[in-house]
Design goal:
By secondary structure, the protein is an alpha+beta fold. It contains 20 helices and 37 strands. The protein starts with 6 loop residues before the first strand and ends with a strand.
């Protein structure tokens, strides 16, 4: 059966399952997008929010009225306009009442409406009371003036507005968040005066570009006093594309050597921040902080006190760490996705939003003026008939008394319209008797003047634009306030490193041949005096600080790192490194290094290749380490060699055949990993695998001599003697004297 064919079989409609599911899912998607999750550009509200505000206005809950139970409002919303869950409806109502959630709240709540620490801690709707705020009149003031379209409610028994006639661009002022099907919206709030300034500028200069508007709207303005630290170029990109992010940072002051946090980012809980800091203190990752206090009260809604361990602690450094590791700094996604005047969802940039909203506002004002003009013309028409009746009152009374059907007679006698005749007949005689000609003519004169002004405004785009501009400025004067979220430039937050967190004490890390490691205090520790397990012996030691990383190198060419303060004590045999690290099968640890992160080392293999690298590039983030030295088959890594000055030091390399070569260290490349370049060898060929190999390396400062060790024989070579072995990197070098050609070690001889 074709997928487009539908047939009726025994009273049932049949169609392919694929077609049915596609249509059902698309229908559901469009419903969620248009009728639930995304705001309309006109009033900046989602349907449930619009219905709550409208229902409250119908209940007479204006800003001048008394508060009424929230349950009454929710009941009206659900029963008349929004047949969904009461908890979801009430939560949407609560959100519009929370001053820490909405930049310009629409609902004035009485009772427990939640707190910034726990926005969802609000009381049940049977306990709280609510009414509309004065700002809500921005949305409702022109509702009954023919400004918007109306639609039937869900059961067709009532009418509800399709959109509210907002006098201000509420979609930018209060922002919006929502998740639909396949799309979402995250519109940040903005300052009313800034947005109105941009809108007015756009009215005066319709061709104004984005940069001109950004002079009025430098960035979002959240309902909190935290700082916006997003760079200006990123904010511009956000407003240009409609997509981006905004980064906020808490504000703090220093009082008597303590840190006092006075403002938190949007929707960040102070209790949660204290928990995060306390967790770091318990894990001993924040030794610079001694105590925390929450001194928040009604006068100071946010006052979190951080007490440093001493007055020598760098408070700025501590806060930089906390910004990087807690919610004291937070990023907010921005996605300017909304339903436009064409009824379609789209991501729009700032200029498009303002242009489209001004179009909506212009049409709203035009409809309001036309509605008023129609009312004025209708009233003038009635007054004309009333004046005729007043001037001929005796005749009007006679006709009414004598005629069975006075209406057509009045119309024929005085030339009245049907509407005028009905109005005269509906007027009470005593009221008609009291009417005075001057009062009627005065009302006519005032209405004629108003009609002329309305007709001129409707006929002149310039006058209409001027009226819109004046109304925007008046509302900005009435409801506007100063910016709360200041825009500042700040350095990027940086977490404390191990060297900042842990105490800096000299330690010696000892590695045994079987891969056992331990750490002893001080640099005067003699590794040879330590006891080792049966069959084990000393391999290497590294001297460093307890707050630094210790690096290990294995026979496969991988490097690993561990914090020195976490290693076992040298009082025992230590622990096997395989309990902390996971080298490849068959690999064993061959070296241990430590020192400053910027120290330079030479990494090389016994096949005669190597490169320079800084110690920090040997650090690994996981137990499996990182690939460092690429080894040809059968090659082994040589012990890493410390390079004091990469630009001045000389490198001396010796092979197992007694060849010695010296050249500047800087001829070797600086790499993060790899095989490196040839150090010594036969020109154009590699060292023969399994035969001749590099057996020793040493670095010398300019003028420093060399000690060659071969078994029990030692020979010292002065710098002048070494000139005979100087050559280009990668050359074969020259042979050492007989008896020293089996080199065991090379040492600098100062």
């Amino acid at each position: 059966m074709s997928s487009t064919i539908q047939t009726l079989v025994e009273g049932f409609e049949q169609l392919p399952f694929k077609s049915f599911t596609e249509k059902a899912y698309l229908d559901y998607s469009m419903y969620v997008i248009l009728d639930r999750a995304l705001p309309h550009i006109g009033d900046g509200m989602k349907p449930v929010q619009r219905r709550i505000v409208y229902a409250m206005s119908e209940l007479g809950l204006s800003a001048a009225s008394k508060h009424k139970k929230s349950a009454r409002t929710v009941g009206d919303v659900l029963g008349k306009f929004h047949p969904h869950g009461d908890s979801a409806c009430y939560e949407a109502m609560v959100l519009m009442a929370q001053p820490f959630s909405y930049r310009y709240p629409l609902i004035d709540g009485q009772g427990n409406w939640g707190s910034q620490d726990d926005p969802k801690s609000f009381a049940a709707m049977r306990y709280t009371e609510a009414k509309l705020t004065p700002y809500a009149q921005v949305l409702l003031q022109e509702l009954g003036q023919g400004t918007v379209e109306w639609q039937p409610n869900f059961d067709g028994s009532l009418k509800e507005p399709v959109v509210l006639p907002a006098r201000l661009p509420n979609v930018l002022l209060n922002g919006a968040t929502g998740i639909a099907v396949g799309m979402a919206t995250d519109i940040p709030p903005h300052n009313l005066r800034e947005v109105v300034g941009a809108a007015v500028h756009l009215l005066d200069h319709p061709d104004a570009d984005l940069d001109a508007l950004l002079a009025f709207i430098p960035g979002p303005d959240y309902p909190c006093d935290a700082e916006i630290i997003t760079p200006a170029d990123e904010l511009r990109r956000l407003y240009q594309t409609g997509l981006g992010s905004v980064r906020m940072r808490a504000r703090f002051i220093k009082e008597q050597g303590e840190i006092v946090i006075t403002a938190l980012p949007h929707q960040v809980s102070g209790a949660r921040v204290l928990e995060q800091i306390a967790a770091q203190m318990q894990a001993k990752k924040l030794p610079l902080v001694e105590d925390l206090r929450d001194e928040s009260d009604h006068e100071n809604p946010i006052r979190l006190v951080i007490v440093p361990r001493s007055n020598r602690v760098d408070l700025e450094r501590v806060m930089s760490h906390l910004f990087a590791t807690t919610d004291l700094e937070k990023s907010y996604r921005a996605n300017l996705n909304l339903i436009g005047l064409d009824g379609r969802p789209a991501v729009k940039n700032l200029r498009e939003i303002l242009v489209e909203w001004l179009s909506f506002r212009t049409e709203t004002v035009r409809r309001r003026l036309q509605y008023r003009l129609d009312k004025v013309l209708e009233r003038l028409h009635l007054l004309d008939g009333l004046l005729i009746a007043y001037l001929n009152i005796d005749e009007v009374i006679r006709i009414i008394r004598s005629e069975d059907e006075p209406k057509p007679v009045l119309m024929a006698r005085f030339g009245l319209s049907e509407l005028q005749a009905d109005y005269v007949l509906d007027t009470k005689l005593r009221q008609l008797a009291r009417l005075e000609e001057m009062k009627i003519r005065a009302e006519q004169e005032a209405l004629e003047k108003e009609r002329a002004e309305l007709e001129q405004t409707l006929a002149s785009p310039a006058r209409l634009k001027k009226l819109i501009k004046q109304e925007l400025q008046a509302d900005a004067q009435k409801y506007g306030d100063e910016r709360r979220s200041t825009l500042v430039q700040r350095a990027a937050a940086e977490a404390l490193g191990e060297e900042d967190i842990n105490p800096s004490e000299p330690v010696t890390v000892v590695l045994s041949k079987m891969g056992w490691v331990r750490s002893g205090k001080g640099h005067d520790l003699d590794p040879g005096s330590l006891t080792y397990k049966s069959g084990d012996a000393f391999l290497q030691a590294a001297r460093l600080r307890s707050n630094q990383q210790v690096v290990f190198l294995d026979s496969s060419g991988r490097s690993y790192s561990l914090p020195a303060h976490g290693l076992p004590s040298a009082r025992g045999h230590g622990e096997p490194l395989t309990g902390k690290l996971t080298p490849p099968p068959g690999a064993h640890f061959v070296a241990v290094l430590g020192g400053e992160a910027e120290d330079w080392y030479l990494i090389a293999s016994d096949h005669g290749y190597g490169f320079l690298i800084q110690l920090k590039d040997l650090y690994a983030k996981n137990k499996a380490g990182k690939a460092l030295l690429s080894l040809p088959q059968g090659a082994q890594p040589l012990p890493p060699l410390r390079v004091r000055d990469p630009e001045q030091d000389l490198l001396v390399a010796a092979t197992s055949e007694g060849h010695l070569l010296m050249f500047p260290v800087q001829e070797l490349p600086a790499l993060n990993k790899g095989k490196g370049n040839k150090i010594i060898g036969i020109p154009g060929a590699r060292l023969k695998a399994g035969e001749e190999r590099v057996c020793a390396l040493a670095t010398l400062a300019e003028g420093e001599g060399l000690r060659v060790i071969s078994g029990k024989r030692h020979m010292g070579l002065k710098q002048t003697d070494l000139e005979a072995y100087r050559g280009e990197r990668g050359r074969r070098g020259h042979k050492l004297p007989r008896g020293l050609q089996r080199v065991d070690a090379l040492e600098a001889d100062g």
